């Protein structure tokens, strides 16, 4: 048997590409080293609750095409992300908006809030923000930075805010209205039935094998990935053998090249998930713990992504929560976030350059492109590749 594409990684990027390739009449074989498809957006149904096993995912986009694209695979509910932040014994709404400011300074009007922030910024004398700390301070002033940004960010990234790129904080809106919607995007929601359903829809009719680790297979099969003049041959660990012309690789690009230019940095996340004997643990899907001293960054109460109801609209009894702990990635951990500092990006560029001579392989997804991409951007990237590749 010969396939046009071997796709390594059954996450969002690989699945979108596979779907498009099949639609274009190409044949694909998808492998993934995990026991499940979906990569980090995989959700697992437990006690009627879709548990976001590899971290909470809220779909949001301003791109109608992308919104229509995902809606082919599932109906989306009208969940709007409005996290709450706990700082010591204080509680604030996120993102930074009039609800946050009125609570912080006991004020009522946008004018008062703007005045306070403006004065705090003026005292700092930052002209050209060079890092996340300066960027955050020059956007929201000292109080919001100290209480809601500094501790959380340093926990999440394991670095001082002075050593982080400023684009990370630009993800968060700042508003002088009473609007707790975390995103500015036009479209937002959670797929009814979970994200796994979307991936299943994309991969329908396509060969998929889980528990197949490319790095191991590569060594065992001695695959020639540089020369694409003839198809490569592979035998999976379950004995399935086939040939393939090209490969889409969505794993870590540095690992692919055996860390030739050194390790790229990633953040990993560990989840402590537990069933709690209450129907309502924290009253919200996402509660961030922004002080440095609390070891986890946030607690997710999964049922609220679906308003606490099952698919028949019945209230779910009990609840499941996940505490999220951020850590430095080391070999054997799941990589979640690329750490896009200047140094790491430069190293990535070297890998990218190297990959150009590799005719058989195309790198994609958060790990293949080493980019902090949201789901809509991942889909856009995969569709872009599909358009170029499948014409
Ligand atoms: N952030 C923060 N305080 C919060 C939430 C977020 O300072 O309570 C900052 C932090 O630097 C974080 C960035 O905003 O890395 C992006 O957060 P987001 O929630 O978008 O991250 P994700 O959901 O992708 O983990």
Task: Describe the protein's architecture and organization.
The chain is of the alpha/beta class. Among the domains are: 2-37 and 203-262 and 338-389, 3-Layer(aba) Sandwich (Rossmann fold); 84-168, no CATH class. It contains eleven helices and 17 strands. The chain has a seven-stranded mixed β-sheet with strand order 7-6-13-14-15-12-16. Strands 1, 2, 9, 10, 11 and 17 form a six-stranded mixed β-sheet that branches. Helix 4 (110-124) crosses helix 5 (132-157). The longest helix is centred in the middle third of the chain and has 26 residues, at 132-157. The structure holds uridine-5'-diphosphate (UDP).
Q: How are the secondary structure elements laid out?
A:
Blueprint: E1 2-8, H1 12-23, E2 28-31, E3 43-46, E4 49-52, E5 59-61, H2 64-71, E6 84-87, E7 90-93, H3 98-105, H4 110-124, H5 132-157, E8 187-189, H6 195-202, E9 207-209, H7 214-221, E10 232-235, E11 241-249, H8 253-256, E12 266-276, E13 286-289, E14 298-301, E15 319-328, E16 337-338, H9 342-356, E17 361-363, H10 365-368, H11 375-389
Parallel strand pairs: 1-2, 1-11, 2-9, 6-13, 11-17
Antiparallel strand pairs: 3-4, 5-8, 6-7, 10-11, 12-15, 12-16, 13-14, 14-15
Helix pairs in contact: 1-11, 4-5
Bound molecules: uridine-5'-diphosphate.
Uridine-5'-diphosphate (UDP) binds at residues 85, 94, 148-149, 152-153, 156, 168-169, 171-172, 288, 290.
Note the gap between the termini.
23 Å
CATH topology of the domain at 2-37 and 203-262 and 338-389: Rossmann fold
General form: globular
CATH architecture of the domain at 2-37 and 203-262 and 338-389: 3-Layer(aba) Sandwich
Instruction: Give the number of helices.
Output: 11
Q: Over all CA atoms, what is the radius of gyration?
A: 22 Å
Q: What is the number of strand segments?
A: 17
Average pLDDT for all residues? 96
Question: Unreliable segments (pLDDT under 50, ≥5 consecutive)?
Answer: none
Question: Which strand order spans the largest sheet, edge to edge or round the barrel?
Answer: 7-6-13-14-15-12-16
Structural class: alpha/beta
Q: CATH superfamily of the domain at 2-37 and 203-262 and 338-389, please?
A: NAD(P)-binding Rossmann-like Domain
Bound molecules: uridine-5'-diphosphate
**H/E topology pattern:** EHEEEEHEEHHHEHEHEEHEEEEEHEHH
Residue share in β-strands: 15-25%
Return the CATH class of the domain at 2-37 and 203-262 and 338-389: Alpha Beta
Helix content percent band: 25-40%
Biggest β-sheet, characterized?
A: 7 strands, mixed
